[in-house]
Amino acid sequence: MKKILITGGAGFVGYFLARRLLEIGNVEITILDNLQRGRKDEELDSLLSKENISFVNGDLTDKKTFERLGKNFNYIYHLAAVIGVRNVQENPDRVLFVNAISTLYLVEFCRVCEDLQKVFFSSTSEIYAGTLHHYDLPIPTPEDVNLTLLDVSSQRTSYMLSKMYGESIFFNYGQKYDIPFTIVRYHNVYGPRMGFMHIVPEMFVKITENETVDVASPSHTRAMCYIDDAVEMTILACESVNTNGEILNIGNQEQEISVRELVFTISKVLQKQVEFNEIEDTPGSPSRRCPDISKIKNLTGFSPKVSLFDGISKTYIWYKSRLHTRHE
């Protein structure tokens, strides 16, 4: 059996990743999470009731946490991080500390895992924001563009910088200690169980409760990727030998859409006509974001399959009865 560790496995991507790996089979999975943002809800409890999966409540900034784990993992998915606009704005110190220290401790742990075939690092599309702000950025954006910071004194920069630092950790530790790794940069992944601090579930609430909806940054574009497609790309990126030492975008460049059009599509799914009140752009919001995913398609052979309308419909089925239980 493949022995797999998923840090941050109680979160959005981590939960669906663990579920899909169990469906594929021939795995033993350990989910490691401190439940600061991930939720031990009925879905996770149901998943943990299955065979060949276990849960460890642990803090990755505490080195002793790793002493509670075995050392025979074949694949490690490092998804754990402090993320979210509110966290970045209110707690940039925690973003920098947790994301840096947890990744350093994790890569030191990788050095003692004798059967490790790959460690997977979850980075972000936010890493391109500085280049977009200061220079011309090709869109769809390939992975090999030069990276530039935004204002180093701003809170928003803390998250971008922590992920740049994480990528550097894997390249330098990986090369020095022969640790096999793959880095991915996620772009606007959405789906059930992602919390409410994202535009899709946020609009489910607003459209359900109001006749007029404020739409910020209406002309800005995002390339939306449904969670099922993101998870398939995640597994292939991690397990393929072709991706060793590579940085890969994960997203769906075929579904770049303006915020205005996205909100209109959500209203169609909800079958409710509402008036849109277009308001000013959100400070710091990139005007356009779309990944070039030709590299991951060439290396893994996978292309996203779920349409935007179908993805939002699947997402709404899950949220429809939960709109009153809002959480981050």
Write out key terms for the chains shown.
Rossmann fold, 328 residues, three-stranded mixed β-sheet, 11 helices, 18% strand, alpha/beta, 39% helix, globular
What does this entry show, briefly?
By secondary structure, the protein is an alpha/beta fold. It is 39% helix and 18% strand. It has eleven helices and 14 strands.
Helix content: 25-40%
H and E string:
EHEHEEHHEHHEEHEEEHEEHEEHH
Proportion of residues in extended strands = 15-25%
Spatially, the strands of the biggest sheet line up as 3-2-1-4-5-6-11
CATH class: Alpha Beta
CATH architecture: 3-Layer(aba) Sandwich
Biggest sheet record: 7 strands, parallel
Can you count the beta strands?
14
Return the average pLDDT rounded to an integer.
95
Q: Could you list the spans in which at least 5 consecutive residues all have pLDDT below 50?
A: none
Oligomer: single chain
What is the molecular shape?
globular
CATH homolog superfamily: NAD(P)-binding Rossmann-like Domain
How many distinct folded domains? 1
The span between the termini is 35 Å
- What's the CATH topology name? Rossmann fold
Spatial extent as radius of gyration = 19 Å
> Number of DSSP helices?
11
Q: State the secondary-structure class.
A: alpha/beta
Describe the structure.
With 328 residues, this protein is an alpha/beta fold. It has one domain (2-191, 225-251, 291-304): NAD(P)-binding Rossmann-like Domain (Rossmann fold, 3-Layer(aba) Sandwich). It has 11 helices and 14 strands. It has helices spanning 12-24, 42-48, 85-90, 92-110, 129-134, 155-177, 199-209, 227-239, 259-270, 294-300, 308-319, and strands spanning 2-7, 27-33, 53-57, 75-78, 118-124, 181-186, 189-190, 212-215, 221-223, 225-226, 247-250, 256-258, 275-278, 288-289. The strands form 4 sheets. Strands 3-2-1-4-5-6-11 form a 7-stranded parallel beta sheet, sandwiched between helices. It has a 3-stranded mixed beta sheet with strand order 12-9-14. Helix 2 (42-48) links the parallel strand 2 and strand 3 (53-57). Helix 1 (12-24) packs across helix 8 (227-239), helix 7 crosses helix 9 (259-270) and helix 9 (259-270) packs across helix 11. The chain is globular. The two termini are 35 Å apart.
